[in-house]
Design brief:
β3 (89-94), α3 (99-105) and β4 (113-117) form a beta-alpha-beta unit. The protein has 341 residues and is an alpha/beta fold. Helices cover 35% and strands 15% of the residues. It has 13 helices and 11 strands. The chain has helices at residues 44-56, 75-85, 99-105, 123-130, 135-147, 166-175, 209-220, 230-237, 255-258, 287-290, 294-302, 315-321, 326-339, and strands at residues 12-16, 61-65, 89-94, 113-117, 151-155, 179-181, 190-192, 195-197, 259-262, 267-271, 276-281.
């Protein structure tokens, strides 16, 4: 239950359009997933049907992700359907590699914002980390987006190796008219058909969280475009969600009830996409029915009490959970956006 509004359904949703990607990011588990599990993507009309249900549930915002969602030829059609025809706040998480081509060919009518991956302010460093020559197109993406009145949020995956460049990244974002999120790298495991897939040696990339938090606080004094707020910073620094006893008392995880994630194959998992205790096929079960199921409500009410929640500081979990109570709504979505003006 959302303590702020008593709402019992999510505010935001995200559709994973594909697991395919031209990148080979050193921290991403997707390359370890076999191709046989990447080929069962939803068809265009199936995605639209889910968008209809999201709209009918009065969910406010929808974003498209992957893999790399720009590999879907129907992406412009889906964005237009979500943003223009259904009136949802519509976003796109992308590395920017194909965006210049898409704008030249189709445009992205209905798109409100782009969440753009950028880990280094130096081209060859970013390209090496992402496994594809994407830096130049990422910069072009920002300029094209602004030309088309689309906001851009730079998403920087903070690692040991790019900590010394964070000030330069923030300055680059400021110069380009972008806001920026700076969450630390995390070892994300993906489960498919009971098998865990992960990228090797990711823990070697993860920064010291105390050093990260001190850096964020210092940068926020100099750059007003940073969206990583002080509550999120404190949550991460003190150990994230879960813990017995609890790592921190600021906020429990509300991701199971506040954030709806639909996989590329139409599956929805509770409590989250990383730890699927309970899964449903959204093409067979109406979305509204899921949130009335006792099994789902029980999982939602557990918040981050599961053992696997211990130490989680995923940005999507934190930001979606911050919609659940007034003090965090104010800090993240009112005060934070006001500071960007």
């Amino acid at each position: 239950m959302n303590k702020f509004t008593k709402r019992i359904i999510p505010y935001s949703a995200q559709i994973e359009l594909t697991l395919k990607c031209m990148g080979k990011c050193r921290f991403c588990s997707i390359p370890s997933i076999p191709d046989s599990l990447k080929n069962n993507e939803m068809k265009t009309e199936e995605v639209k049907r889910i968008i209809d249900e999201i709209h009918n549930l009065k969910i406010v915002a929808l974003s498209f992700t992957g893999g790399e969602p720009t590999l879907r030829k129907d992406l412009p059609e889906l964005i237009k359907y979500s943003g223009e025809e259904k009136g949802l706040i519509t976003g796109l998480a992308t590395n920017g590699y194909l965006i210049p081509q898409i704008y030249k060919r189709n445009g992205l009518t209905g798109l409100d914002y782009i969440l753009l991956s950028l880990d280094y302010p130096i081209d060859y460093m970013h390209n090496k980390m992402r496994g594809v020559d994407v830096f130049d197109n990422a910069i072009r993406t920002i300029k094209l987006a602004h030309k088309n009145n689309v906001n851009v949020i730079i998403s920087t995956n903070v690692m040991k190796s790019n900590m010394i460049y964070l000030s330069q990244i923030c300055k680059l974002a400021e110069d380009l008219g972008c806001s920026i999120e700076l969450y630390p790298c995390e070892d994300i495991v993906r489960f498919y058909e009971g098998v865990a897939y992960r990228r090797k040696h990711v823990k070697e990339l993860i920064p010291n969280l105390d050093k990260w938090a001190k850096m964020i606080r210092s940068l926020r004094k100099r750059y007003s475009n940073i969206l990583t707020d002080h509550i999120s910073t404190q949550i991460v620094q003190e150990g994230g969600f879960g813990g017995r006893p609890k790592h921190q008392e600021f906020l429990r995880c509300h991701v199971a009830g506040a954030y709806l994630f639909i996989r590329h194959d139409g599956k929805i998992s509770f409590p989250c996409k990383i730890h699927p205790l309970l899964s449903f096929n959204a093409l067979k079960y109406p979305l509204w029915s899921l949130y009335n199921m006792k099994e789902v409500r029980d999982i939602i009410n557990e918040h981050d009490q599961y053992d696997f929640c211990n130490g989680c500081y995923l940005g999507c979990a934190i930001t979606s959970s911050m919609t659940a109570q007034w003090n965090t709504v104010y800090e993240k979505y009112i005060k934070g956006l006001r500071n960007l003006r």
